Amino acid sequence: MKTQLLRIGDDIVALHAVVTDEGVTLIDAGLPGDRRILRRALAAVGRDVSDIRGIVLTHGDSDHIGIAEWLRAEHGIPTFVHEADAGRAQGEKTPGAPGGRWRVGPTLQFLAVALRRGALRPRHLGAVRTVRDGDVLDLPGSPEIIGLPGHSPGSIAIRVPVADAIFVGDAVTTRHVLNGSAEVQVGPFSDDPDLTPESLERLRALPERAIVVGHGPIFRGTAADLLSSLGR
Ligand SMILES: [Zn+2]
């Protein structure tokens, strides 16, 4: 079977599944209420939760860890996160970063989705496995970890060549959650937004043709195309 990339959720908050003959790798874990949409998406391709071999987090923020603890506690599925974001994923408080310019409509839309999908009941991880820059994980799709500090210290790009995709989490957004802007830009709430474009340079030469973000539609192009959209 050809590797499939499932997009689960919507352009406000999405998680993704890489489906291969060896099983499923989840990239990020959405919001706490996302069990049902995960099950439905897997069922549509003839899989279920027991096919998931692991979850890789692009970073440790609460809108990306949603159902990870449920999958760990009840199904024994491990979550992998960069060591610098391990504390964040396990509930350590971090200083809030500014979100930038916002508009009422898109902000309310984000909040409505977040509420409907259980964001008020965050469940932090009881245990994680840590990864480092350069690791290639023994999971379906052989995800490769590329450090991408900026949005958070432990933000990573997850390169999955068999899916022709690189997952960049909130380093970049194609739909700003606070103002609805569809311009390709550095994600809001970044700890160090100036560091992100510099980190993205590390992806420039990679051939994958889809850059997958946590919020907004998939960017159809290479990392070099993405960088030129960012004015670099
Ligand atoms: Zn996010």
Short description:
This protein has 232 residues and is an alpha/beta fold.
What structural keywords apply?
232 residues; alpha/beta; Metallo-beta-lactamase, Chain A; 6-stranded mixed beta sheet; 6 helices
What does this structure look like?
The protein has a single domain (4-120, 127-229), classed as Metallo-beta-lactamase, Chain A (4-Layer Sandwich), CATH 3.60.15. The protein has a 6-stranded mixed beta sheet. A 5-stranded mixed beta sheet has the order 7-8-9-12-13, with no helix packed on it. It is built from 6 helices and 13 strands. The longest helix is centred in the middle third of the chain and has 13 residues, at 104-116. 20% of the residues lie in helices and 23% in strands. By secondary structure, the protein is α/β, with parallel strands linked by helices. The structure holds zinc ion. Zinc ion binds at residues 61, 63-64, 170, 214-215.
Give average pLDDT, whole number: 95
Approximate helicity band:
10-25%
In the CATH hierarchy, what is the architecture at level 2?
Answer: 4-Layer Sandwich
Instruction: Say which CATH homologous superfamily is assigned.
Output: Ribonuclease Z/Hydroxyacylglutathione hydrolase-like
Strand content: 15-25%
* Largest sheet, strands/sense/barrel: 6 strands, mixed
Q: How far is it from the N-terminal to the C-terminal residue, by CA? A: 38 Å
Please compute the radius of gyration using only Cα atoms. Answer: 16 Å
Strand line-up across the major sheet: 1-2-3-4-5-6
Bound molecules: zinc ion
Class from helix and strand fractions: alpha/beta
